[in-house]
Amino acid sequence: MNNAKRIMSLMMASVLAATATVQASALPLAEGQDLLNKGQTEADAIKVKGLLIDFDNLDEQITKTLDEEIETDEQLKARLSEVLLLLRKKMYAKGEASDDSKDSNAETVDVNDILESIEALEPQMLKSFYEALKSDENVKSKIVAGIDEPTAKLIYDKIVEAVALDEKYAGLAILKKELLNDSDLKVEPKFMTRNDCFRAGRVMSPVKGIMVHSTACPGVMPKTWYKEWNKSYQKGEIAREACVHAFIDDKGACQFLPWNHRGWHAGGPGNNYLIGMEICESSGITYSQAKDKILEIDTDVSREYFENAYNNAVKLCALLCRQFNLTEKDIISHCEGHTMGIASNHGDPGHWFKFYGKDMYTFREDVKKQLGNSDSYATPVPGLTTLKNLLITSLFPAGRTLYIWGGGWNEEDTGAGDGAICIGLRPEWKAFYDTQGADYDFKNHRYEILNGLDCSGFIGWLIYNVLNTEPNNQGYVMSSSKMAAEFSNRGFGTFRAKEDVVDHKVGDIMSGPGHVYMCICEFADGSVLFVHSSPPGVQVNGTTTKDGNEDSTAIRVATYIMQRFYPEWSQKFNTFSRGVSYLTDYSQMRWTTDGTGKLTDPDGYLDKEPYELLVDLFRINDEADRNELHRIIYAK
User: Fold this and answer.
1) Residue 527: which of 505, 501, 506, 553 has the closest Cα?
2) How crowded is residue 259: how many other Cβ atoms within 10 Å of its Cβ?
């Protein structure tokens, strides 16, 4: 470090030490105030200046002794602070410094030198200084006295920003270098040090997920957001209290908060544990006056921008997942956060994604691919109470979880056990499945309750994962024949006895004698596609028509789905159809989705035709696959 930098570093360190331990009155540094015994102090300053110039030549023991004396002698500490601050004023006060306070090494100091000197301070010094800045607003004016305002602001902001890289944030303030080295995403840390959210200094411990937003301000990019939001609401500089961790555009990401710093973005409890990121929307979008609906958008012109910004958001989420040990299922949108009861009522970013054929499920799938997981299973979101998430969650264990008598129950056989009050799949399910062949017989594995699920264990696990985000809460496993009625009694939806069932819709829970299943959709011929756990395990099946015709649309579709999406399972177990009793012997619970029950239907699944629903649910994007599904459903 050159002499000019070292002088600045030592001055800052001395100011820090004095600020952290000495009364404010011991630092009479504001403009217009004289230092005690000014003449003697100026003479001391000249001596100190010479000492600093020769600093590198000092004996190590001498410098150590000096450090110890400064640390233990409060008066010496305060006096040295006064000397060095006066020296700094002489060096930087707009050309007014006296000749005897200058030398060839200290006539000019670039702002970048000052900023680098701040970074050279010991972490503990920065931390103490930061605490002093937070506790005493006057400290700022004292520290920057005698320096022009733009330079003073740079110095002050750099000090506050540097603290965010301290051990206070446990090394999680910025992305780890080894992660960035493996990514082509450009991430620029530029903290909003003047924003009250940053100054609050609250840490998320731990970080549990990521919330994705979009700005609803067409054409406004990250640099503008920094300029507009890097202000204080408490001081009347800005009209709202908001701050997110990052803004993303087609060029990269700008980080505005330390990653594990509590942000102000969700408008609810999600702020306590979710990283928030805003994707900047392109120009060429016309919104309604209430900003709740896109009226016009030119997707041809904006598609390239969208795809680049979308992909950058995917890359950033993947990096954050690696840094904080998260997975794609820990990523939600602002809209989904509202559905989960942890965020304010917004529709972003799905209201914008949909114009480009994207949604949060494709987003999570793309993050999953970035993380190196390329399996074809859709990713459910624990606690996301929508019909679509109910169906996606039901398919998660399909094709890899075997039927176990008692699976999902507790040891006492009285209700939910560990297998049905876990979030996600238990590793034992797939491990056990991998050991079994086409001759699997569940009768040989009764009550191996952690190796798979029975019918009520599966439905109990399913509902638990849609209504909960943490394991080990109260479960939903009970006698299969009672489930429809009991769930209705709990306020989930409307109950119909088997003789009153007239149709089958998305998510209907169907209870029969000794069995329970969930509907996916009903076709024009009256056959029903559904998911359940029945020997040999969790699978998609189709019913016959009501007159018993086995060449039903549902059976043809079930066969296609199992063979197309669960090929290994289908080679082991050739079971795709169920009889007419599934249509006649089961009572029904239909979910209430108007906001008064447990689930909602923001994706419009109740109104979708079977073909449209299945294309969306199974992410059937290939044109040949779509044509095949269309042929199967509508074949005469």
Assistant:
1) 553
2) 23
Mean pLDDT of 403-426: 96
Rounded to whole angstroms, the Cα distance separating 435 from 553 reads 33
The answer to whether 159 and 224 have CB atoms below 8 angstroms apart is: no
Kindly state the tokens that stand for 593.
């989705």
Cβ pair 278, 215 in contact under 8 A:
yes
Show Cβ contacts of residue 281 under 8 Å, excluding neighbours closer than 6 positions. Answer: 214, 215, 216, 217, 218, 219, 220, 352
**What is the C-alpha separation between 226 and 243, in angstroms, rounded?**
10
Question: Where does the pLDDT of residue 526 fall: very low under 50, low under 70, confident under 90, or very high at 90 and above?
Answer: very high
Nearest in space to 521 (alpha carbons), one of 618, 444, 635? 618
Beta-strand relationship, 528-534 and 537-543:
antiparallel
Q: What is the token pair recorded at 395? A: 């398919």
Q: Could you give the residue ranges of the DSSP H alpha helices within 376-426? A: 387-395
What is the Cα Rg of the chain in Å?
32
| Average predicted confidence (pLDDT) for the chain | 82
- pLDDT of amino acid 139: 55
Tokens, residue 359: 């949604």
What region, left, alpha or beta, does residue 495 occupy, with left being phi > 0 and alpha being psi -120 to 50 degrees?
beta
Joined tokens for residue 444: 């040989």
Q: What are phi and psi of 603, to 5 degrees?
A: -90, -5
Find residue 246's DSSP bridge partners: 255, 277
| 6 band by pLDDT with thresholds 50, 70 and 90 | very low
DSSP state of 544: -
Strands 285-287 vs 294-297: parallel, antiparallel or unpaired: antiparallel
> How many C-beta atoms surround the C-beta of residue 455 within 10 A?
23
The phi, psi pair for 290, rounded to 5°, reads -80, 0
pLDDT, one tens digit per residue, over 278-331 is 999 999 999 998 888 999 999 999 999 999 999 999 999 999 999 999 999 899
Neighbour tally for 490: CB within 10 Å: 13
Give the angle subtended at the CA of 136 by the CAs of 134 and 140, to the nearest 5°. Answer: 85
Q: Report pLDDT digits (tens) over 563-573.
A: 999 999 999 99
Closest CA to 618 of 365, 306, 429, 402: 365
Q: Contact at 8 Å (CB) between 109 and 54? A: no
Q: What tokens were used for 340?
A: 């989960």
**Antiparallel, parallel or unpaired: β 209-214 and 274-279:** parallel
Which structure tokens are listed for 237? 């500089």
